[in-house]
Amino acid sequence: SLLIQAPSNELNQFQLNVKSLNLTGGCENISPDNSFISVGIKENPVIALDESKIVCIGSSDSISVSGAQSYEWFLEENLVNNTEILYLNVPTGSPESVDTYLVTGHANDCESTDSIVVNYVSPPNSKLDGDETVCKGQVIKYRSQSPEDSVSWTLTGGGVFKSPSNVDTVLVAWSANGTIKLKEQVGECKDSTSLDVIVDEFSSSPPY
Q1: Quick one: pLDDT at residue 17?
Q2: Could you tell me whether strands 110-121 and 52-56 are parallel, antiparallel, or unpaired per DSSP bridges?
Q3: How far apart are CA 60 and CA 87, in angstroms?
Q4: Which of 70, 136, 144, 181 has the most CB atoms around its CB within 10 Å?
Q5: Which of 89, 111, 109 is nearest to 99 (CA)?
Q6: Global pTM?
Q7: How far apart are CA 115 and CA 124, in angstroms?
């Protein structure tokens, strides 16, 4: 037998000089004109898989992979799936947890392995603080009670932001009735809440 180590460059074929090899076991002698054999190199599959994923507890989610012909998914060394799409067994309640999945892709008798870390997180529970009855022209502070990774505010009606709208706390000047809405997100987990604001047209903002 002959053990061949494939080249590490980009070549997918090379020639092996066998003129000096002593072949036994019934093989014919190799003549000088037939002293080279071509050896083909098969490439390992290149697996396309994210490094990590945030999944909302209580939701339905999956992981997909590409780059090979067949796949094997493992969790704690246990085979859990053999297709390109893995449907996750998402927890339905607390506490938050983390799983690491290994996937092996097979193609042309070669294989590659990659992994993904899945973080199961609690969904946001959006709540906001701030006045809902204000004087005309008054600037009011509104605050998220439990700010998450991504926070955004929007206004409809007679409100104008007096501060950035993508932070935990915002300032709004009201000239007429309107609504302020808070949106929060952790990974793919989203929640929102809103507050209708009534403006007293017959009162103005008190002097500072």
Answers
A1: 57
A2: parallel
A3: 8
A4: 144
A5: 89
A6: 0.62
A7: 27
